[in-house]
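Standup notes, protein team

Yesterday: finished cleaning the Thermococcus indicus set.
Today: NADH oxidase structure.
Blockers: none.

Input for NADH oxidase:
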Amino acid sequence: MKVVVIGSGTAGSNFALFMRKLDRKAEITVIGKEPTMQYSPCALPHVISGTIEKPEDVIVFPNEFYEKQKINLMLGTEVKAIDRGRKVVITDKGEVPYDKLVLAVGSKAFVPPIKGVENEGVFTLKSLDDVRKIKAYIAERKPKRAVVIGAGLIGLEGAEAFAKLGMEVLVVELMDRLMPTMLDRDTAKLVQKEMEEHGVSFRFNEGVSEIIGSPVKAVKIGEEEVPADLVLVATGVRANVDLAKAAGLEVHWGIVVNEHLQTSDPDIYAIGDCAEVVDGVTGERTLSQLGTSAVRMAKVAAEHIAGNDVSFRPVFNTAITELFGLEIGTFGITEERAKKEGIEVAVGKFKGSTKPEYYPGGKPITVKVIFRKSDRKLIGAQIVGGERVWGRIMTLSALAQKGATVEDIVYLETAYAPPISPTIDPITVAAEMALRRFR
């Protein structure tokens, strides 16, 4: 069986490895534009700050590792088209036949049509090449003032990196808060306060209308010119769908797939940032552009191609980050989005400590849990705290994926030891607060 993968990022690389474990005889070929296989895009801001020393350090495995697994690599190769009739991939280096084709073509940074966005000193943060350019620019120009356009995960992590390098940082966001698709106003305020204490300033409900100078000297916000020596455009990403669309596959926000990650052509699969899957709360189609989702999709697609009846489950988009030592974890739907979707919810919120009050060193933690009133199920959570957010958001997400109700969380068995956690965990207390709204 000839299995061809287009895309050498997280989804494509992991698929190739999973496929090889499941089928020792399959002829597996990975076609990718970049010269290397998988690296971690989430680590890129930490390369800018210097926490990770070199861009090359975020490459997961060298190309030789895949070759030893008898995976054929066609890197630095551009795919021109897919001929579904003849079952071949047409590249700038010739045609590649397939029995099963996997589209792991990822996403691209969305750059809004801002005047001057192509000027020197304006960057996106999506690839290793982006990081190399930013680091070279910083080394040469030694910027003192950075403006970040967009307050999503990448924008905030980029802002943190610039601040750690000693720059004065301003984040400009069109919405009324940071991380607007992941946090409600109350939890977003906690993150904003922490970042402001580390020298990052914010302007909400505003946009950058022009970038002035090349190299950049200022940005225009409304009619005001704000000095800037470097600009990061972090206004989200868009799924790469052009190749699939040209091949006649069904495309919406992303490449539409079924529960087995097959496209409208059953011999072609789509995984990772480019695939449009199902939202675990609303049941509507959505994108899940997270590294963890990419790996899970890779595993499911490999299993299905190998003949196993495995399905990709609806997503809750569980995510976590750390900004200046503050951990932020989220999944599912926000309270604000639930209202827009017409979902009646009961919300519980608790602010406490990560350790018992009598034990020294505890850090503040805020837990917000969101339950759907119609069936009492957990459909979202937001946790902001100084430590151990990861374990709690993972626990709640896992419970939500299994259909847990408010009572399940209230009476959850948790672990306790004074140096680690309180007797009554903050997640159960938050659930108790929500339970009152059902009575």
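Follow-up from PR in the comments: The longest helix spans residues 291-305.
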